[in-house]
Specification:
The complex is a heterodimer of chains A (110) and B (114).
Chain A: E1 4-5, E2 11-14, E3 19-25, E4 32-38, E5 45-50, E6 54-58, E7 61-66, E8 71-76, E9 85-92, E10 98-100, E11 104-109
Parallel strand pairs in A: 2-11
Antiparallel strand pairs in A: 1-3, 3-8, 4-5, 4-9, 6-7, 7-8, 9-10, 9-11
Chain B: E1 4-7, E2 10-13, E3 19-25, E4 31-38, E5 42-49, E6 56-57, E7 64-68, E8 74-78, E9 87-94, E10 103-105, E11 109-113
Parallel strand pairs in B: 2-11
Antiparallel strand pairs in B: 1-3, 3-8, 4-5, 4-9, 5-6, 7-8, 9-10, 9-11
The chains are: A mainly beta (110), B mainly beta (114).
Chain lengths: 110, 114
């Protein structure tokens, strides 16, 4: 059973809107969480990581973590067509291995 | 500074053939990883090497072997390729000290087994 779950999408949002991407995890021992962006045919690249409950902001991106609910989210403000990609959520477990979700495909329409 | 490099970029094999995927990193990272990515499955860990001289199985190790040749290089070998091994393979490296924890990925190898 997959330990990190994401809705596969596609999630379609209009340009300029807020895109909300969600992820749940099952391992309560996971302490830190990562969001990767992957363009079609390319390798994943790190957008943000978070390890404390609450929000963490970086430019147009905000990561949110709720350890009690085992829930992580990524908000993308002022979405651009260039944000269209697959977003992978990953949890860092006690063995310092990253477990990845299946990814959510985001489409931002002009 | 090239980061993580992988060769080859593309490969087609016949069932039963063998091959080695090469990976190298120039960031002086201790930990290196091999993943496979199939549609809708995300990234699944095949093998990892926490440090030079050690290797361990990940989630899907069957049909693969690895070698941590030195701190820079970590290779993945398919001894007898099967169609189920058709996938995109990513190598990654990571440094677990210093607080960064970012994992860097190579460009990937697209493997087709017929």
């Amino acid at each position: 059973q997959k330990e990190v779950e994401q809705n596969s999408g596609p999630l379609s949002v209009p340009e300029g809107a807020i895109a909300s991407l969600n992820c749940t995890y099952s391992d309560r021992g996971s302490q830190s969480f990562f969001w990767y962006r992957q363009y079609s045919g390319k390798s994943p690249e790190l957008i943000m990581f978070i390890y404390s409950n609450g929000d963490k902001e970086d430019g147009r991106f905000t990561a949110q973590l709720n350890k009690a609910s085992q829930y992580v989210s990524l908000l993308i403000r002022d979405s651009q067509p260039s944000d269209s990609a697959t977003y992978l959520c990953a949890a860092n477990n006690a063995g310092n291995m990253l477990t990845f979700g299946g990814g959510t495909r985001l489409m931002v329409k002009p | 500074n090239a980061g993580v490099t992988q060769t080859p970029k593309f490969q087609v094999l016949k069932t039963g053939q063998s091959m080695t995927l090469q990976c190298a990193q120039d960031m002086n990272h201790n930990s290196m990883y091999w993943y496979r990515q199939d549609p809708g499955m995300g990234l699944r860990l095949i093998y990892y090497s926490a440090s030079e001289g050690t290797t361990d199985k990940g989630e899907v190790p069957n049909g693969y072997n690895v070698s941590r040749l030195n701190k820079r290089e970590f290779s993945l070998r398919l001894e007898s390729a099967a169609p189920s091994q058709t996938s995109v393979y990513f190598c990654a490296s990571r440094e677990l000290t210093g607080g960064s924890y970012e994992q860097y990925f190579g460009p990937g190898t697209r493997l087709t087994v017929t």
